[in-house]
Every structure is written in structure tokens, then in C-alpha cells.
Amino acid sequence: MNRERVEAFLDSLGPLSFAGFIFLQVLQVVAAPIPGEVTGFIGGFLYGTVLGLVLSTVGLTIGSFINFWLSKTFGRPFVDRFVSKGTIERYDYLLHHKGAFLVFLLFLIPGLPKDLLCYILGLGHLSIKEFLIISTVGRFGGTLLLTLGGSFIRHQQYYRFSMLLGVTIVVIFLSMVYKDNLERLFRKWHIGSRRKHSLEKSERKKDK
Question: Cβ neighbours of residue 96 under 8 Å, at least 6 residues apart?
């Protein structure tokens, strides 16, 4: 994506520039034609830290909700068109129990396919309210880093940008190294807690 073109496009919208940027963020979540890292950075560059963060968060939340709602409404056949069988199987354990805290932890890990995860979660037991809270808060850290990066470049704060970039690279590197291990740990934890819940439920029935 060419940053100058996007900036010119948003400027051409005049008072509707904010709405145009939110639409871009929604589009990159639902249709994924634009890398989310690019739009997040552009938000900070064009609108500064606070406003850029607010606009990005609104757009990402709306886009995430659309993915989740489409999945809830049209079910597995619809999701199969957008999400590969391998990806669904990788996260199928999330569909058998709520696991809200686990889902939140997954949203915190950089590099996970969060847009696709929204589709998958729509097949599970999370309520819309729970999903919106988890996805919005879970995406916030990454959105903040991207927005800060764009804002630093906008104000020519190259030292701060270099420091932020260094921290981001370290976080992403560690996440990529330990991502599979974390996912396996979360999966075991989730399955273990589900079994424990089932046993407790069975014992309560026996006591009755």
C-alpha cells in the first residue's frame, strides 16, 4: 500500500476523512486486502496518537464484530469459505467451551490470525458482549504500538521510533519463537479445565 495515496484519498474526503479511515480498518479485517500493520501505522501518522488509536480501535472492533456475526449467522459452511480447514482444526478446541480468558490470551499474541480467529469464535459459545470486550481489549496493545510508530514518524521523533521498533521486534521475535509452545500450553490448559468442569458437573449430579 502507498501511504501517500491513502493520505491523498482520505484528505479528498474532507470532513468524512475519519469515516473513510474507519472503513479502511473495517475492510482490512473483513476482506483482508490491506495489511492491518499498514493501516494502524497510517492512523498514527495522519491523526496522531490519541485520535489515531481511537479511530483504529473503532474500525477494528466493527470489523471483528462483522466477522463474528457473519459466522454466528451463517455457520460453518460460510466460515469454510474464508478459513482453511487446517486453521479451523488448530483452534477447534475453542468451540467446545467458552474459555473467555484463554481467547483473550490468544488475542495478545502477535502473529496469530486474529481476523480469522473472529470467524472461528463465531462458531463457539462466546456471547457477542464477551467477544467484543475480549477482541477490543486484546487488540489494543498491538494497535497502540502501531499508532505510536506512525505518530513518532509524523513528528519526526526518530529516536523514539527506533526505540519502539526495537522493542516491537524483540516482542515479535519472542512471540514467533514461543508461539507454538504457548498455543499448545493454552490448548492443554483449556482441555484440562473442561474435563475438570465435566467431572465436577457429574459429581454434582450424583450427589443429587
Answer: 124, 194
